[in-house]
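Records of this kind hold a single protein each, on a pair of labelled lines. Below, a sample record shows both lines together.
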Amino acid sequence: MNYIRITAENIDKEHICCAMSNNQSAQKKEWLKSRFDEGLVFYRSEERGKCFIEYIPAEYAWHPIVAEGYMHIDCMWVSGSFKGHGYSNDLLNECIRDAKEKGKKGLCILSSAKKKGFLADPKYLLYKGFRVADESDVCIQLYALQFADGEVLPHFKDCAKHPHVNEGGFVLMYSDQCPFTYYWVPRLAEVAKENGVPLKVVHIDNLEAAQNAPTPVTNFSLFKDGKFITHEIQSEKKFLALAGIND
């Protein structure tokens, strides 16, 4: 497999693997363009499909973590016909090589005790030498791969470790980091309005807001009556089920 790196120079003509439509691609690309100067890397298979890794110095990660000197993996996704060929290892090895070359202490990434959608596979991470560095009250974990013994482990900020909001009804927080939010968030807002479900939508649109958000996952987080419900992007049907409305 051959791989290419998406940069400010080629991003307008290259596809990004996770987008569902041209509009979603444009939204995500604008987000990426604003991150390149911060050290973001988007590295993908030359073949078109979901086979890529996206990472950034943890000081610029859009999550409430403290991981000075680490590289944070925003997303690593290998799916469909790309699975089972060792491509995940290729992507991770490139990230490790690059991080070591840049003098980083190690890598960190969000996951969970059991595999959940939109998070890295914990079994794979443990197999590759990662370990749990911290855990939130909602079972979302921060994994770390240290390049040398004795380094301080990354950890969640308190706002991420104990996620909650001080509002009733549903509160949905999201960012443009995941292009799927471009498609689903407006649909959830519309179906909530149609069914009289109280829903406040909060768009996280800058680094400071992301790093101080009351959730460990800023791509998409749904709260109900102050309590964190899920980080997994919901369809209209699933959202209405959470609201107690059946077809």
